[in-house]
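Quick illustration, no need to memorize.
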Amino acid sequence: MINFFGGIDLKLATKYLIALFIVAMASCLVGPCIAVDIIPMGQTGIVDNWQVKVVTVFPDATQAVLKENMLNTKPKPGEQYFMVAIEAKNLGDAEYSFYSDNLHLVGDSLVAYDTAWCVPPNKISSNDAFPGGTLKGNVAFLVPSSEVNSLKMYYEPGFSKDKTYFALS
C-alpha cells in the first residue's frame, strides 16, 4: 500500500474508480444512458435565447413529407420520417436566428439523428425573430422505424456539448 498526497491510498482509489465505472456501464445496458432531466411534451425549455416547446409529434409523417415536395426522398425499408411541431420564442433583447439544425433525436440505440434533408409540411423557418417573436413549424427526421417509440429530442447549441432534452410523448 502506497500513500501519497496526504494519505490517499492510490490502490484503493483505483479500485473505487473501477467499481464506479462498472456500475455506470451496467446502468447503460439496462436502458438509455441519458441521465438528464427531460422537459415534458407541451412544456417549455430554455435554450440559448429561446423558449422552446414541443407542441405535437407525427411519428409516421412519411406520406405527409413525400406529398409536400416532389424532391423529398422516399425512406429506405425500415425507415420513416418522424416530424415534430415546435414553437420557439425569442427571449433575448435583440433579433436572433433559430437554427433547427441544432435539434436532434436519440432513441434506445443511443444513436443521434439529425434533421432530415427534406421539406416537411409547415417547415419551421430559420428566420430571425425580434424580441418576443415566436417561430412555429415542423422539423422532420429520418429514423429507423424500430426507434420511433423510444425517441427523445434534444437541442445542442453550436460549439457546445450542453444538451436540453424534450419528451416526445
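The first helix runs from residue 10 to 30.
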